[in-house]
Specification:
Blueprint lengths: L10 E4 L2 E3 L3 E3 L12 H12 L1 E7 H11 L9 H12 L2 E4 L10 E4 L4 H11 L3 E5 L1 H6 L6 E2 L2 E3 L7 E2 L9 E8 L5 E7 L2
Parallel strand pairs: 1-7, 1-8, 2-9, 4-5, 4-7, 5-6
Antiparallel strand pairs: 3-10, 8-12, 9-12, 11-12
């Protein structure tokens, strides 16, 4: 009897909070409309625990790293302190041509190497590789296996879209969850 050989295969997912009209930032670049309540934050904490690595573009990396590794996060509300601990414990890969260095716990990859690096990571990783940032997600669109928007009950009328303009995707809804505050989590997998 032959034994089955197991090959790890990472899932590349794109998860961000978005407005009801599909934006991750408002017209001024703000994200205050998407601030999670405690229930949604706990859900994000669980997702972070299950993430093998974060893949960030420069902009989102700078926002996340500065905020979530700041010493005062440990003294804040427990739900935020928990996320800060999980965030710091998760490997972070930053795709940028303008940065010269990144913080401890992070690794810098040049944008020209992004596709090859993500293909390698998907082959070598058993778990979720979470893409953060609309620009990076757009450059990796053909490699993304799952789209996981958290739709916030806010209509903001414009800004930076979650999906790149002109994208043509066929998706299947595989999970959904509604939160008491009106946010809805949707998980779609790519068809074909």
């Amino acid at each position: 009897m032959r034994r089955a050989v197991y090959f790890p295969m990472g899932t590349l997912s794109y998860a961000m909070s978005i407005s009801l009209d599909g934006y991750i930032e408002d017209l001024t670049g703000g994200i205050a409309f998407s601030e999670p309540d405690e229930e949604v934050h706990r859900f994000a904490n669980q997702q972070t625990r299950e993430t093998a690595a974060f893949l960030f573009g420069r902009g989102l990396y700078e926002v996340m790293e500065e905020f979530w590794t700041a010493p005062e996060r440990a003294d804040g509300p427990e739900v935020e302190a928990e996320f800060a601990r999980e965030y710091a414990a998760t490997p972070r890969i930053v795709f940028s041509d303008s940065l010269e260095s990144v913080a401890p716990g992070c690794r810098l990859v040049r944008r020209a190497d992004a596709i090859d690096e993500v293909v390698r990571l998907k082959k070598e990783t058993d778990g979720d590789l979470a893409v953060g940032g609309a620009g990076l997600a757009a450059s990796l669109l053909d490699l993304i296996d799952e789209f996981r928007p958290r739709v916030v009950p806010a209509f903001i009328g414009g800004g930076k879209p979650y999906f790149p303009l002109g994208a043509d995707l066929r998706l299947r809804l595989v999970e959904q969850r509604a939160f008491r505050g009106g946010t809805v989590y949707l998980r779609y997998e790519r068809i074909g």
